[in-house]
Amino acid sequence: MGELKVLDHPLIQHKLTMIRDYRTGTKAFRELVDEVGTLMAFEITRDLPLEEIDVETPVTTAKAYRLAGKKLGIIPILRAGLGMMDGVLNLIPAAKVGHVGLYRDPKTLEPVEYYVKLPSDIHERELIVVDPMLATGGSASAAIQSLKDRGAINIKLMCLIGAPEGVKRIQQDHDDVDIYLAALDEKLNEKGYIVPGLGDAGDRLFGTK
């Protein structure tokens, strides 16, 4: 089964507290989500493979290490996932970016795919799916399935906040996907919002209602 990893780094937790605060305005909220995205990317890439090379320093030749050419891809789920994308790219600027757009059918409440644009070689890439909230898990599960249907093999899911219900859904539907959260919250309320959560991430990122 894929692992659940809650990233308890002090800087992540400090910034997440400010993200949760209802008094945090759109500009600050957007900047904080961006910063936490970078910090989480630092943790999620901890196990990337390295290769040893020779490098000329101003003094002598040294044995050193560089990334072993592993291809990465960042896949934000539209629209709120866009708020975390730049934060990850700050750390991994060479990563390719794909997009998966989903909306919830008002009658069935099931996610409906309306847009997918991906790198042509996703089967060769380690993909990081990003979305601030893992609530019911329906959208994230559908996005992951969409990637698998197009040939993706190696997928990780990165969210700011998750609910137990969403984590369980991903683990049931995609037991090969590791989940990275900044916080695992208590539950979902009757409207499907994470409690205590941070409200609607998309609205707070983009200043909409």
From TrEMBL:
<dbReference type="GO" id="GO:0005737">
    <property type="term" value="C:cytoplasm"/>
</dbReference>
<keyword id="KW-0021">Allosteric enzyme</keyword>
<protein>
    <recommendedName>
        <fullName>Uracil phosphoribosyltransferase</fullName>
        <ecNumber>2.4.2.9</ecNumber>
    </recommendedName>
</protein>
<feature type="binding site">
    <location>
        <position position="104"/>
    </location>
    <ligand>
        <name>5-phospho-alpha-D-ribose 1-diphosphate</name>
    </ligand>
</feature>
<dbReference type="GO" id="GO:0000287">
    <property type="term" value="F:magnesium ion binding"/>
</dbReference>
<comment type="pathway">
    <text>Pyrimidine metabolism; UMP biosynthesis via salvage pathway; UMP from uracil: step 1/1.</text>
</comment>
<feature type="domain" description="Phosphoribosyltransferase">
    <location>
        <begin position="6"/>
        <end position="208"/>
    </location>
</feature>
<dbReference type="InterPro" id="IPR050054">
    <property type="entry name" value="UPRTase/APRTase"/>
</dbReference>
<dbReference type="GO" id="GO:0044206">
    <property type="term" value="P:UMP salvage"/>
</dbReference>
<comment type="similarity">
    <text>Belongs to the UPRTase family.</text>
</comment>
<dbReference type="InterPro" id="IPR000836">
    <property type="entry name" value="PRTase_dom"/>
</dbReference>
<keyword id="KW-0328">Glycosyltransferase</keyword>
<dbReference type="InterPro" id="IPR034332">
    <property type="entry name" value="Upp_B"/>
</dbReference>
<feature type="binding site">
    <location>
        <begin position="131"/>
        <end position="139"/>
    </location>
    <ligand>
        <name>5-phospho-alpha-D-ribose 1-diphosphate</name>
    </ligand>
</feature>
<dbReference type="GO" id="GO:0004845">
    <property type="term" value="F:uracil phosphoribosyltransferase activity"/>
</dbReference>
<dbReference type="InterPro" id="IPR029057">
    <property type="entry name" value="PRTase-like"/>
</dbReference>
<dbReference type="GO" id="GO:0006223">
    <property type="term" value="P:uracil salvage"/>
</dbReference>
<feature type="binding site">
    <location>
        <position position="200"/>
    </location>
    <ligand>
        <name>5-phospho-alpha-D-ribose 1-diphosphate</name>
    </ligand>
</feature>
<keyword id="KW-0547">Nucleotide-binding</keyword>
<keyword id="KW-0808">Transferase</keyword>
<comment type="function">
    <text>Catalyzes the conversion of uracil and 5-phospho-alpha-D-ribose 1-diphosphate (PRPP) to UMP and diphosphate.</text>
</comment>
<dbReference type="InterPro" id="IPR005765">
    <property type="entry name" value="UPRT"/>
</dbReference>
<keyword id="KW-0342">GTP-binding</keyword>
<dbReference type="Pfam" id="PF14681">
    <property type="entry name" value="UPRTase"/>
</dbReference>
<feature type="binding site">
    <location>
        <begin position="199"/>
        <end position="201"/>
    </location>
    <ligand>
        <name>uracil</name>
    </ligand>
</feature>
<feature type="binding site">
    <location>
        <position position="194"/>
    </location>
    <ligand>
        <name>uracil</name>
    </ligand>
</feature>
<keyword id="KW-0460">Magnesium</keyword>
<feature type="binding site">
    <location>
        <position position="79"/>
    </location>
    <ligand>
        <name>5-phospho-alpha-D-ribose 1-diphosphate</name>
    </ligand>
</feature>
<dbReference type="GO" id="GO:0005525">
    <property type="term" value="F:GTP binding"/>
</dbReference>
